Every structure is written in structure tokens, then in C-alpha cells.
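Feature request, filed as a ticket because there's no other form

It would be nice if the structure record came with a short human-readable summary line next to the C-alpha cells. Right now we just get the raw output. Example of a typical job, pasted below so the devs can see what we mean:
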Amino acid sequence: MALFSLINAKAYCYYEKVGYNEDCGNCIAMEQSGHIIKRESNGAIRLHHKMGKEWRKQEVRQRTGDLDRKRIIEILLPPVIVFLVNSAVYWGAPRLTDNGEDHNLSLALDTKIPLIPAFILVYFGCYIFWVINYLLVSLREEEIKYRFFTADLYARIICFLFFVFYPTTNVRPELVGNGIFVQGMRFLYQIDEPVNLFPSIHCMASWFCCIGIRGDKKVPVWYKIVSVMIAVLVFVSTLVTKQHVIVDVIGGVAVAELTWFVSCRTNGWKIYRNLVRKAGGENGK
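Raw output as currently delivered:
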């Protein structure tokens, strides 16, 4: 506290010939902290004004740097946790299934939806949309931010339970042709098997992007509208690439809204916040 009060002092002490018994408390504090103070042979103290200025700048830089690092961790860590949890859910759930019957939730209407390979651009491009909007949410005020990421965690857990205990699948069409979009579809089908379909994580995450900025006055209205439009395009892309069926889309949106509703009315966000702080090297309170 002595050091902090010294930083905010309007002027620094300058002692030329002061007896040892009249030492300034602030100067003693600076000396004890390891900063340069010259003691004369008679016990007097000389605090160089120039060194005082440099010390103040150094302290300010150190404190500002600590705050910047803390802020960066608070912004980046929750989205990173989302990525890690999602990876564990999506790639871990199939390893835990009992290889029993997979359920096909296709409706008659799904068979009437055409295959449109060009929408592979939207299907892959939405990852950029997620990164941008999740970072925007991570910049919001603390309570809203952690309620959002707590809701997202709840949603991933729900997805995991469905993927393990009620696995779903669908029938993919035969791809014809060698166009660039068809080739993209083939690549998608190779790296992503028709599992983990209900609820759709693609649709859930895209709708969370809208939920997270819904009440943020700092985000312009036009971007909120654009976000909804992008989310709808993602919904369509999951259907016309035959990655999902209509029920999957509805389930993804429903899970996002349900977990957001629960998170806004419970205090689980405080536990999530404390865990994030501990993971970032801070005390959890």
C-alpha cells in the first residue's frame, strides 16, 4: 500500500541533508522495495527526483501489463474452453456408443429438400462466424458473458448425452460429378461420418451467436440482423448438404434457447467464472 500511495503522490520527496531520524516513510518504502536511494555517510537520504519519475513509469508499465495480460486471458480462455469441450463431445461420444441401433429422424419433407453442393461454403465458412461472435460475447460485461458460456457448456453436455444414449444417423445421397463443390462435399463426407446429428451442433452454435449479442447495445442492429441471416443460412446449409435433417435443426435451436433460459435464472455462471479464473492462474473469488 505504501508503494501504491507513492505512485499517486503529486510530488516526490527530495532530501539533501535530512537527519536519519527524519526519514520520509515513502522514501523508506521505496528503498525497501529495492529502488535507488542514496544514503550519505551521516545517515541522510537523497532520493533522486529523476529516478523517482523512472520508478513511477516502471510501476505503471508493470501494473498496466499485468492488467492487459489478465484481460486477454479473460477474453480468450472461455472460447478456447468451448473449442476443447466441443472437440471432446464430438469426437469422444462415438467412442462411447454401444454400436447398437442408430435412429433416423428424417421426415417426408426431408426427402423433398434438394442437394445443393455450393452450400458447402456456408457449412465450412460458419466457423469464422462462430469465432467472431463468441469473441464479441467474451467482451461483454462479466455476468452476461459467463452466463452465456455456462449455457454453452450445458448445451454441449446435452448434446453429448444424446450422441451417446440416442445416436442418430441419416442416409446420404450419391455424389455425381467432379465440380469443385462436389469435391468439397466428398471431402466433408470423408472426414465427418453421419453420426452426432441430433441436436445439430452447427445450428446450435450458430443460434448461440445470435443469443450472445441479442441484448448488447454496443453491437449495431444491422450486425444483429446479419447474424440472424447467417444463422439461417447455416440451418439451410446443414439440410441441403444432407448433413442433417429438419428435426436436428429444430433440436439445435431449442437446446440453445433452453440452456440460455436456465443459465439466466441460476447461479451456475459463478462456478464457471471461478473455474475459468483458476485456470487462468487467478484466485477463484
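Something like this underneath would help us a lot:
Confidence is low (pLDDT under 50) at residues 1-23, 35-50.
The first helix runs from residue 2 to 7.
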